[in-house]
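quick one
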Amino acid sequence: MSSADTLRDLKRINEKYQMFHAMTDDVDAGDSKFLFSAKDNLTSKDMETCAGSRILEGYHPVFDATSIEKLRAAGGKLIGKTNMDEFGFGTFSTNSGFEIPRNPYDLDRACGGSSGGSACAASVIDDHVSLGVSTGGSICCPASFCGVYGIAPTYGRVSRHGLIDYGNSLDKIGVLSQKAADLRKYMEIIAGKDERDPTSMVQPDFDTSYKKMESVAIPKEGIEGLSKEVESVFKDAVERLKSMGVQVDYVDMPSLKYAMPAYYILATSEASTNLARYVGMRYGHQEGDHSLKFDDYFTEVRSKYFGDEAKRRILLGTYARMAGFGGRHYAKAREVRQVVINDYKRVLETHDAVLAPTMPFTAPRFSDISKMSALESYKADYLTVPANIAGTPHLSVPCGYDSEGMPVGMQFVADHWNERVLFSIAEDWEKQFDLRRPEVSI
Ligand code: GLN
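structure w/ glutamine:
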């Protein structure tokens, strides 16, 4: 599908797949060099920005997020803001206050989360690149479920200016695409120092030149708890990597087991403070009885417009930070984070990357997700969370398909600032991988 056709058919495509929350009305590609979409937690001047939350309905930011600003300056046209879990809270994009994106390979299944709409757009639309955001795995998980390439860079590589924060010490903006080469191409545009985000100011130069991935380490902890199908597809993929000349070793990384509980303490603690600003006064909805006392007014607005998962995370995070408990929970979680970082550093001294499947199963059906408890869905993140709490760059590549034709992804984690080895393996892998596009009909 050409760019022009894509724009004309966009609305119909979207009716079927529900990837966009907001879309451009301007169907003329004009002289734009490329089309892109962005997760709806990145502010955009000409489109409503809600971060998947009803509390932000009607919010029209007055500025572009740096990553969007840079893509536009490079000749990109923003065609849509993608559906996501509310504020990024989820693994399947089903915790959205708005539309829930459908998996391009099977409409009864989820796209993954929380950048589900971005992965869907990257999978369904040709020549398309989508910006995603990862806090605990939200780029790699949906990339894996939708059979596309996705990279979350080192924490601090891309400015978070204009990002509606989930967990400030964790959030990273990255890229999803059908084509491996797009990861390098578009990351080069969005990366770099930005005075409006101090955490981006200390990064080394972005060397994106080719560097062959020579060796990977597979942690034993990363291949436990997999579905049979993911296990067998991953095994074949590892054989193929070996045949590409990559040395594969098996290692122990005992800290990985503790990353998931630590993550949910850190992430919810930060999220619960970030959500304090949504009180029905500055952004989005302003309604209700203005003569009420402030506490009563904001309780009314927050009760009505936050979804269940946002409320759960406010409770969890507030509890974790409660006076007298901070040391027991938050401080301990930070210690675990350091132990995880040390474990990666140890293994990455002798290997180019740590490798495991991206997700322990393929995209689940909506009917199965609705039966999952919150804890069960948190647990699904055990493979993506460790690299996120370590702030290390990570990449998901499609590595095969299960017996029902659903994509399986594998995730490479490199050392801080070493994205180049990830771009290179993505491109090398793509050359010999038989990507099965979903059948897109409207
Ligand atoms: N599933 C994880 C969570 O719910 C990660 C989400 C994310 O990276 N935004 O927190």
